Amino acid sequence: MKSPIIEVKQLRTSFQTDDGSIPVVNSIDFHVSPGEVLGVVGESGCGKSVTSLSIMGLVDARTGKVEGEILFKGDNLADASEKKMRKIRGNEIAMIFQEPMTSLNPVFTIGQQLTESLRVHRKWGKKQAAVRAVEMLKLVGLGRAEELLKQYPHQLSGGMRQRVMIAMAMICEPELLIADEPTTALDVTIQAQILELMKDLNKKTDTAILMITHDLGVVAEMCQRVIVMYAGRIVEEGDVRSVFQNPLHPYTVGLIQSIPDMRVKKDRLYSIPGNVPKPGSQNLGCQFAPRCAHAMSRCISETPALTNHENGQKVRCWLYEDGKGAGIHDSAIS
Amino acid sequence: MFSYTIRRLGSLIPVLLGMALIVFMMIRAIPGNPAQTILGQQATATAVAALTKDLGLDKPWHIQFWSYLKGLFSGDLGVSLRTRQPISQEVWPYLAATMELALVAMIVAVFIGVNAGIISAWFQNSWFDYIAMIVALIGVSMPIFWLGLMEQYVVALQFDLLPTSGRDNIRDPVQAITNLYLIDTLIAGRFDQFFEVIKHLILPGFALATIPMAIIARMTRSSMLEVMRSDYIRTARAKGVKMFWVVYSHSLKNALIPVVTVIGLQTGLLLGGAILTETIFGWPGIGTYIYDAISYRDYPVIQSGILVVAFLFVMINLFVDLLYAAIDPRIKYK
Ligand SMILES: Nc1ncnc2c1ncn2[C@@H]1O[C@H](COP(=O)(O)OP(=O)(O)OP(=O)(O)O)[C@@H](O)[C@H]1O
Ligand SMILES: [Mg+2]
């Protein structure tokens, strides 16, 4: 196995609010190796975007605080200077954002925005950068590329904009690509095309990808390993196949159950009861306990640790204390 | 863009015609015989008859309007009753004086206002932000005439730093080419006179610039704050663009769109303010010209003076509209 390109250790990102400093991402550990696609799943509000912004060093320093280690090629980005981060951003680590409709600047042309990283990081001239931009646009499946360079974002559809965003992120051949729900805002056919495209790029360039999504279908399609986040913490981690076949944490089980199954027509779709707690609203015990069908008294008072299980799977749940319990599979859920 | 400009110019025709009609009716709205009113009750019958004929008041009104329009088109603004000079020649030095004052005031207001707004937004809640916004608040609530008189009293009378009034005090003026003294003195290579002109411009220019500067600063700040929170600014930062460029290019170009409207409105108001400022500072501009004409009941001058100011106003609006289209590609040139 290749040594990881990025290693996140005990990452904790907190925001200053009226009720004091509240952690939104809490003690997160993970690593991604070159050529690998790591999936990060979890419901809305569980801290996926904050995790990626922390890596990019784009958490607003006035209200937010990033602690822990983010080791990228040996350097800790968590305490790197703004100048150093600027050299890494868009060059060695690039990011695709969640909102394709608003993530492009409305008053600059696609060409200006696409070539900017090259001009900033590689000091390329306009012409040279434009040639490369056209190549990239073709690579992401956009025709009439030369013409497109002169157009403005409002002249493009959502799918086209997201392709431009991908081209923009990949243009400097980053070693790590953070894709924050790159397809959520798109319709299903375009979604499939974009995923296919990212998979291709990943194979061709050996770029490591951190694939953030709340869609398990995307994970199954794209990733080798997956981490499941809940309320700012990792609750389960492992190979995609093991996690899908043998989900351990009741939350993961719930997530997998709530995937609509085309073959079976149900009267109602399954959904996990309740909502993700507001950050900071619950400090003691397992964050998922209030929504968990298997909660015990201990779950409310003590926070479980992330422990190793079979097949390299990890889980944060009292049902699997010391890796010995057979957990929920004893108490028959279905 | 070119056809858009032509179309906008075309749409000005009815506006200009309407303006001409209103100004034309002004003099005819005087009850009784306008010639008698202009000349006063002591005037002889022959003088009244001569003026009636001079002003063309003896003809039917539609013929009068037609010949008035024809005159305007050939650049004939009538003849001053007081000086017996064609107004179109006489008005130019006054107009140039106003334009010089207004232009200098507006350039200063825009430059300082926009930059103060940008820096306040960039370093929101810093001491610079607080001080700039307090100063701006005082600025918007300051009556122009009071500010002008205070300036004269403190700077000119108490400390004798700058001249109290006038446009220059030079024995041998350089040849008037543009009638913009800043330019004329430079063309003649007379730097001593150039600085003399600047010295005279400072106090009235500052009085005139204060309110627009304050309003522009506040508008820029709030517009920038909004833009800097948007997704595309985060995208720019994620590309590794320097913060200075993120602020002055990516953000500013978007933030300027509402600011340009304010600048246009303020320039129009500034023309009104110029008349007040000119009277206080004895500035020989169009305000002074009209003001004097009023006290002499020189109706043709009043008419044409108002027409010229209104024309300027319309031209500024046209310029602002074109500027809009140049900044924001989403404005359709239809
Ligand atoms: N700048 C901030 N200040 C305070 N709280 C924040 C800030 N940014 C995010 N949060 C909070 O952090 C939590 C996690 O947000 P985040 O955007 O990471 O969720 P997410 O997992 O990406 O959700 P989604 O799937 O909807 O994108 C949310 O409760 C959010 O309110
Ligand atoms: Mg998110």
TrEMBL record, chain A:
**Secreted among the record's keywords?**
no
Q: Any keyword Transport? A: yes
Sorted alphabetically, the Gene Ontology BP terms of this entry are: peptide transport
An example of a Gene Ontology cellular component annotation for this protein is: plasma membrane
- Residues in domain ABC transporter? 6-256
| Listed GO MF terms | ATP binding; ATP hydrolysis activity
Q: Which PROSITE patterns match?
A: ABC_TRANSPORTER_1, ABC_TRANSPORTER_2
Instruction: Enumerate the UniProt keywords alphabetically.
Output: ATP-binding, Cell membrane, Membrane, Nucleotide-binding, Transport
Q: Output the InterPro entries linked to this UniProt entry.
A: AAA+_ATPase, ABC_Ni/Peptide_Import, ABC_transporter-like_ATP-bd, ABC_transporter-like_CS, Oligopep_ABC_C, P-loop_NTPase
Q: Which domain of life is it from?
A: Bacteria
**Location(s) in or outside the cell:** Cell membrane
Q: What is its main location?
A: membrane
Matches recorded under CDD domains: ABC_NikE_OppD_transporters
Q: Indicate how the chain sits in the lipid bilayer.
A: Peripheral membrane protein
Q: Which family does it belong to?
A: Belongs to the ABC transporter superfamily.
Name the PANTHER family for this protein: DIPEPTIDE TRANSPORT ATP-BINDING PROTEIN DPPD, OLIGOPEPTIDE TRANSPORT ATP-BINDING PROTEIN APPD
Q: What is this protein called?
A: ABC transporter ATP-binding protein
Q: What high-level taxonomic lineage is stated for the organism?
A: Bacteria, Bacillati, Bacillota, Bacilli, Bacillales
UniProtKB/TrEMBL annotation, chain B:
| Record Gene3D superfamilies | MetI-like
Which Pfam families does the record cross-reference, listed alphabetically? BPD_transp_1, BPD_transp_1_N
The cellular component terms of Gene Ontology attached to this UniProt record, alphabetical and capped at eight, are: plasma membrane
How this chain sits in the membrane, per its record, is:
Multi-pass membrane protein
Q: Which GO BP annotation is one of this protein's?
A: transmembrane transport
Subcellular location field: Cell membrane
Q: Which UniProt keywords apply?
A: Cell membrane, Membrane, Transmembrane, Transmembrane helix, Transport
Q: Which domain of life is it from?
A: Bacteria
Q: Where are the transmembrane segments?
A: 12-30, 101-123, 130-149, 201-220, 255-281, 301-327
Domain ABC transmembrane type-1: from-to ranges? 95-324
Which SUPFAM superfamilies does the entry mention?
MetI-like
Q: Its family?
A: Belongs to the binding-protein-dependent transport system permease family.
Stated name of the protein: ABC transporter permease
Output the lineage of the source organism: Bacteria, Bacillati, Bacillota, Bacilli, Bacillales
